[in-house]
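Researcher: Let's walk through a ligand-bound prediction step by step. First, I give you the protein sequence. Second, the SMILES string for adenosine-5'-triphosphate. Third, you return the three-dimensional complex as structure tokens. Ready?
Model: Ready.
Researcher: Here are steps one and two:
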Amino acid sequence: MSTVIEVEGLFKRYGEVTAVAGVDFAVREGDVVALLGPNGAGKTTLVEMLEGYRQADSGRIEVLGYDPGSAGREFRDRIGIVLQESGIEQNLRVREAVEHYGAAYSCRLPAADLIRLVGLEEKADAKVKTLSGGQKRRLDLALGLVGDPHLVFLDEPTTGFDPSARRKSWEMVEGLTSMGKTILLTTHYLDEAQHLADRVIVLSKGRIVADGTPDSIGVGPPSTTVRFKTADPTSLPRLEAEPSVEQGKVSYQTVRPTALLHQLTGWAVEQGVELEGIEVVRPSLEDAYLSILDEEKGREDG
Ligand SMILES: Nc1ncnc2c1ncn2[C@@H]1O[C@H](COP(=O)(O)OP(=O)(O)OP(=O)(O)O)[C@@H](O)[C@H]1O
Ligand SMILES: [Mg+2]
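Model: Step three, the predicted complex:
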């Protein structure tokens, strides 16, 4: 697997503000990486340096073997960028817009294929100005892909989408993944990162504070919660963990869920107790993300 992005010791300051404060990472071909972090963390600044739209103050950047800051057409040909807002000519029809944008690339995907990929077949002959917000974003995605890029940058691809449009755009991104594209996306939706990314990188104040798979980032051993309802919370067994009861809901925290479930269900069957609505819950990426940022904050304050 070859390396698509390589970044070492990257810094970017705007006057007093250090937006990117010493970042190192590498992305391999075919990876889907989600860049997370609070407002102002430096995500857009970092991505724009990778795209070649912003010059770094210091550090080394290599993207597809090029220095984006000085690379020319060959580099542009091989990356696809889907911006939050693209200024498409509103009077073009969807098919015309795709063909028009494609003309700028030496190698391009057939317009009909792209329109199918983003699910705009029925709108192929509609004018851009008649599209709904979600349909426009799909067109943006099609335009970002028209040059058949190796590497795709998606900046908050589903902000403002309704839940079903978000699911559909996830399917589109999965389609890209299965074509072997490398994808770097920024998002504020943790479920989106969990669903799409093989890897998440969390930025805070211009530094990487966590980097790993969506399931592995976080602090300490992943603890699982086993929860259920019971009519009589006074007669609960003390298993390898102490139960806690809140509003008729019982929960056990454990790092050994298999053993705990075995003991618990054994006890329940023996006692003839129904463990109503039992669920086994792993901490979500959102829990991990928030605790990483809390820890960072604690480190700064302390
Ligand atoms: N052109 C600029 N001039 C001065 N300061 C800037 C400029 N662009 C960004 N900054 C500052 O750099 C820091 C990082 O901004 P950046 O846009 O990279 O954050 P972000 O992680 O993309 O945030 P968001 O989630 O809100 O999009 C912020 O403090 C911001 O105010
Ligand atoms: Mg941003």
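Researcher: And what stands out?
Model: The pocket of adenosine-5'-triphosphate (ligand 1) is lined by residues 14, 17, 19, 37, 39-45 (CB under 6 Å). The two ends are 42 Å apart (CA to CA).
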